[in-house]
Predict the structure.
Amino acid sequence: MKYHQRWQLAELLADRLFDQPAVRRLLEQTKQRDGALIAVPLHPWRRFWRGYNQAQLLAKRLGGHCALPTVQPLVRCRWTPTQAFLHSRARRTANLRDAFALIHPQQVHQRHLVLVDDVVTSGATLRATARTLLPARPASISAIVLAVADPRHRNFQRV
């Protein structure tokens, strides 16, 4: 989906994700609490070259299943090398330092938020986006990811 212009798979994958009871429960609770979905933003050049933001496609489809709005309070303001080629947690964290900016804090103030991304490996991207959202004082921040890359075989548990 991400690297081979297979953006159409995002809807199918989001549908399968929504079929997971824990995902459905989190989305329904978020809706009941006047929450919103936030797709992890891509840098404008990466979005231009790829033609789409895979996290945005996932978020829109998930939100459509339960009438949950998708908001865009963040932008990716600094070009960074792709995280896929950085293999240590420290390098991934450093790569994303100051990569995001909060441009619409009113969209998330006192709201329950769910970050949506396609893959999590070290969690650096989710931590960086959540840290950027904190000055807007959201009520809570959760995350939904399509896949977990576990190259160290840490055997993460699905929730």
Notes: The chain has one domain: 9-148.
